[in-house]
């Protein structure tokens, strides 16, 4: 009986641990017969449903007050080169730098793809 190669890194050094197959090289665990899962970043969309990607340029569609400051990010502010954050627990799933303000996080529901 041969043990299948890892479904993620294709390592041949996998082993059984109970009903799971484990890869010691990438620490991936799966049950025999499971299809390989694509651990790609979840789909993040803008306010109009357009999918966003790292490096996209977006435009703010609503005045956004900056917490702890008297500054406001105005409607129409262009943000260049965003970075998506997949595991954002507070809903702020975009990291960016806004000129005149600096680094901050935005929610994708308040931007549209430029």
UniProtKB/TrEMBL annotation:
**Membrane spanning stretches:** none
Q: Where is the Protein YjdM C-terminal domain?
A: 45-114
User: Sorted alphabetically, which InterPro entries does this protein's record hold?
Assistant: YjdM (IPR004624), YjdM_C (IPR013988), YjdM_N (IPR013987)
Report domain Protein YjdM N-terminal positions.
2-30
Name the family: Belongs to the YjdM family.
* Protein name per the record: Alkylphosphonate utilization operon protein PhnA
Which species does this protein come from? Acinetobacter nectaris CIP 110549
Lineage from the top down? Answer: Bacteria, Pseudomonadati, Pseudomonadota, Gammaproteobacteria, Moraxellales
């Amino acid at each position: 009986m041969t043990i299948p190669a890892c479904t993620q890194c294709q390592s041949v050094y996998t082993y059984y641990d109970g009903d799971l197959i484990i890869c010691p090289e990438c620490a991936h665990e799966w049950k025999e017969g499971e299809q390989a899962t694509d651990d790609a970043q979840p789909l993040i969309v803008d306010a109009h449903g357009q999918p966003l990607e790292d490096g996209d340029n977006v435009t703010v569609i609503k005045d956004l007050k900056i917490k702890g400051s008297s500054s406001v990010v105005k409607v129409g502010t262009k943000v260049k080169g965003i970075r998506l954050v997949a595991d954002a627990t507070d809903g702020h799933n975009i990291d960016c730098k806004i000129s005149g303000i600096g680094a901050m996080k935005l929610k994708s529901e308040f931007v549209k793809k430029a």
